[in-house]
Amino acid sequence: MKRRGCFTGASLAVVLLALPVQAKVIDQSEIGFTVAHTAQVAATPEDVWKMLRTPEKWWSKEHSWSGDAANFWLDSQAGGCFCEKLPGDGGAMGSVQHARIVFAKPGEMMRLSGAFGPLQGEAVTGTLTIQIKKTGAGAAIRFDYVVGGYMRFKVADIAPGVDKVIGEQLRGLAAALGGNLPVAQDDKADDGPAAEAAPADAPGEAKEPAKDEPGLDDAMADLLKGDSAAGGESAEKPR
Q1: Each residue of 25-70: pLDDT tens digit?
Q2: Is the pTM of this model over 0.85?
Q3: Which CATH code of 3.30.70.360, 3.40.50.880, 3.30.530.20, 3.10.110.10 fits the domain covering 23-85+94-190+218-230?
Q4: What is the DSSP string of 179-225?
């Protein structure tokens, strides 16, 4: 999102030229794209959730309509609004809905439906899924933003710019929580005492395949395995 509007013409070109080399668009077609970013912070999942609920502390004012992050607010329940106040002349107050919450599970996942910035004026659907997982170092966070539908932009042109914006917001969230940590190759989710010592298989007994953890998207496994190539910010394509 861009102050007083959106990426158009020269401003879009400037954004694309300024893209970091670690920007990651993990999936793309003629009708849409997916971007993903990950981070690890020295904060509990509960603290991450509390910070998520206050976007005015971490969402960039450069990607607002009013130019002031203090105007953001988020009602963190299903049906709740991620919105922004738009102060006008003479005391008039407008507003804009950036997204609406469709799933909220404190300390674990928040999913928002909304087409951010210039995508708001197009016939597209955008879904931002924010996953949180407890780790030995604190918490792992992943942002996945999936966009699909009809748009007047070329996907190849707009996707990298959107990727940059989503990555910037995750970096802002991590910074507000004390900074992004490097992800160690052997860092694993903290599954509690039951995960500390699994019994050995009996001789001749076939080992059953590990079961997926309920409530955790397969994509998060990329982060928990290790994502050090880009400082823990970008992720590979989900399985």
Answers
A1: 889 999 999 999 999 999 999 999 999 999 999 999 988 888 899 9
A2: no
A3: 3.30.530.20
A4: -PPPPPTT--B---GGGT-PPPPPTTPPPPPPPPPTT--TTHHHHHH
